Amino acid sequence: MDLNAAPILAFWETTKACRLACRHCRATAMPYALPGQLSTQEGVRLIHDLASFQTRSLILVLTGGDPFMRPDLFELAAEARGLGLPVALSPAVTPLLDEERLQRALDLGIRSLSISLDGACARTHEGVRQVDDHFAQTRAALELLVRMGFKVQVNTTVMRENVEELPEIAALLHEVGVHIWEVFFLIPVGRGAAVHVISPQEGEDVSHFLFDVSRYGLVVRTVEAPFFRRVSAWRREAGLDVDPAPYFHLGPLYRRLAGAWRARMGEPRGAAFAQTAGTRDGKGIVFVSHDGDVWPAGFLPVSLGNVRERSIVDIYRNHPLLRAIRAGEFHGRCGRCEFRDLCGGSRARAFAIHHDPLAEDPACSYEPAGSEAACM
Q1: Residues 19, 54: Cα–Cα separation, whole Å
Q2: Which of 56, 65, 150, 182 has the fewest CB atoms within 10 Å distance of its CB?
């Protein structure tokens, strides 16, 4: 698919409204919708614009806030399905996530749904989600979704507070029957600015651990950690029988995570189901905020225009920043890196730290061949 012509994923933040107040929330969601939220009619127009990309690969992800806080959610989803657009939902785990609403989603042909789990125990998860008994509610929701036949994705934000629990989280997902694990590497925006970010070396260790997990039948993807694709390419090239700890000079975090995982799950069972597509913020991904502003991604709040005034097709294909991102016109290490097309670094993190969406990704520990650091 030509990612210059159309994205693979279009995220629409249908509302800021949400009953949760998660510590790392990108959206800084609140219990009510903000003025300026796209109306039903404007949402329908957006859906028709997305359909005009004329590609079968595009998936519309309805997110928030909590999309179930929109009373017209199923009307909008039906409009998209009527135009042939696949729809995925990313709701919060609240009492609104009930069997009746989920059955309505299934009846519309919605098969993919993602929810968040940020700890292997109540103390950690509820410390992030700020709701008592939310861990048990989330596990019950996962079991319901699997039982009803959804393709279930769990989103986990990795941070210092939960990084040691990643093996237990992965084991829980395996036990419940979750299909996809999408691990977010925290960007210090919104409420997430107050949460502790792991170091670049720890990020490398976590990426290798995630590759290990992908060999146990769970599809593993990352968000704002495109360097995971570099790690995946390295691991496949080195061979699956290689011990990655000495081969790649990994740190003690990897050894702890991998040791705990193998002690629980045994030896790996086959091929790796690790993300390899070279998408990134603005390349294969586009985000529409609650008020119609278009951003390269949900964690990259740089306005490219507004769908009330300009077609999202025109914005995606022609905005200079998106064209530069897709062309790999990066600065610093990302600009010199031989993996800049496969990876390209987190544009959101570059913007958050350097105030430049084309700067190098400070969370990546890799020094490209030929750089001064690599020659020392």
Answers
A1: 36
A2: 56
Question: Going by C-beta distance under 8 Å and a sequence separation of 6 or more, which residues neighbour residue 332?
Answer: 359, 360
Contact by Cβ (8 Å): 223, 183? yes
CA dihedral 137, 143, 144, 145 (to 10 degrees): 110
Burial class (CB in 10 A: 0-12, 13-18, 19+), 83: middle
66-77: pLDDT as tens digits: 999 999 999 999
pTM of the model as a whole: 0.92
- Residue 182 DSSP code: E
Pairing of strands 294-295, 284-288: antiparallel
Secondary-structure percent of the chain, ordered helix, strand, coil, rounded to 5: 40, 15, 45
Cis-peptide into 65, omega within 30 deg: yes
* Mean of per-residue pLDDT scores for the chain: 92
Torsion angle, alpha carbons of 95, 100, 103, 107, to 10: -130
How far is CA 156 from each of CA 1, 133, 221, 325, rounded to the nearest angstrom?
A: 28, 18, 11, 26
Residue 374 pLDDT level (bands cut at 50, 70, 90): very low
CA distance 33 to 194: 24
C-alpha closest to that of 13 among 279, 240, 273, 291: 291
